[in-house]
């Protein structure tokens, strides 16, 4: 079983269901406007009832990691 990281939320990110990557997002960034927009778009695609406990975002994982890194610099 994977260890839970305190202060982070696991998010599955990818453009295809089978290729999604788990990325740990700092809780403080969950309300970042870009993250909220991506979550809303993904909710439109998946619906909230199909999340199965883990948030899913339809986005390129490498681009998402860069977005998280940049947002972290600006969110102190």
How does this structure look, described?
With 76 residues, this protein is α+β, with helices and mostly antiparallel strands. The chain has two helices and three strands; from the N terminus they run E-E-H-E-H. A three-stranded mixed β-sheet has the order 2-1-3. Strand 1 and strand 2 (21-26) form a beta hairpin. The protein is globular and about 30 Å long. The mean pLDDT is 84. It comes from Vigna unguiculata. This is SAUR family protein.
Characteristic key phrases:
76 residues; alpha+beta; 3 strands; three-stranded mixed β-sheet; 2 helices
Whole-angstrom Rg: 12 Å
Report on the biggest sheet. Answer: 3 strands, mixed
Helix content: 25-40%
**In which order are the strands of the major sheet placed?**
2-1-3
Hey, roughly how much beta strand do the residues contain?
A: 15-25%
Q: In total, how many beta strands?
A: 3
Distance between the termini: 31 Å
Helix and strand string, N-terminal first? EEHEH
Tally the helices. Answer: 2
Protein name: SAUR family protein
Family: Belongs to the ARG7 family.
GO biological process, one term: response to auxin
Pfam families: Auxin_inducible
